[in-house]
Amino acid sequence: MAVDSPDTSVKDRVRALVAAHRGDRGALLPILHRIQEEFGWVDQEIVPVLAAELNLSRADVHGVITFYSDFRSEPAGRTTIKLCRAEACQSVGAEQVVSHAEQVLGIKVGQTTSDGSVTLEQVFCLGNCALGPAAQVNGRVLGRVDAKRLDAILVTETVSS
């Protein structure tokens, strides 16, 4: 999606997604998920289109997008790393892994490297508690991730992306 203004084809696609869910109760969330799946992020420029199509205020649409951490308001890096920060993972060193990742990548959780190679995110449970600290790399859940394993993941994933 264009940052300046979504082109007509993007607007048309968004309208088609709205039409597919128009009769659904609470349609905004499934529509936003579909937009994120299709485009990789939810461009703020389509907020007025969604608001108009769903008869909602722009503030309502924006509020939902910013409330849920699953929605991105800018494109993600080629590699997305989600580090679990739930209690089970914290108890086995997750915070050290997060600190290491931030230091190595030169970014904070929730940011993307300047070259667009890696987006670092936090989650609060990947359901892999017995193998913590857990991470999810491009949708693949991994266990027992320490600083050394994270370094290996970064090398493998950023080279192959």
TrEMBL record:
This chain belongs to the protein called Formate dehydrogenase gamma subunit
**Keywords per UniProt:** 2Fe-2S, Iron, Iron-sulfur, Metal-binding
Tell me which InterPro entries the record gives. Answer: NADP_DH_HndA-like (IPR028431), NuoE-like (IPR002023), NuoE_N (IPR041921), Thioredoxin-like_sf (IPR036249)
Q: At the top level of its lineage, which domain of life is listed?
A: Bacteria
Which SUPFAM superfamilies does the annotation name?
Answer: Thioredoxin-like (SSF52833)
What Pfam families does the database record attribute to this sequence?
Answer: 2Fe-2S_thioredx
Q: Where are the transmembrane segments?
A: none
**Cofactor binding comment, as recorded:** Binds 1 [2Fe-2S] cluster.
Q: Which GO terms describe its molecular function?
A: 2 iron, 2 sulfur cluster binding; metal ion binding; oxidoreductase activity
State the needed cofactors, names only: [2Fe-2S] cluster
Q: Which residues bind [2Fe-2S] cluster?
A: 84, 89, 125, 129
What organism is recorded for this protein?
Answer: Micromonospora pisi
Q: Does the keyword Iron-sulfur apply?
A: yes
Q: Which family does it belong to?
A: Belongs to the complex I 24 kDa subunit family.
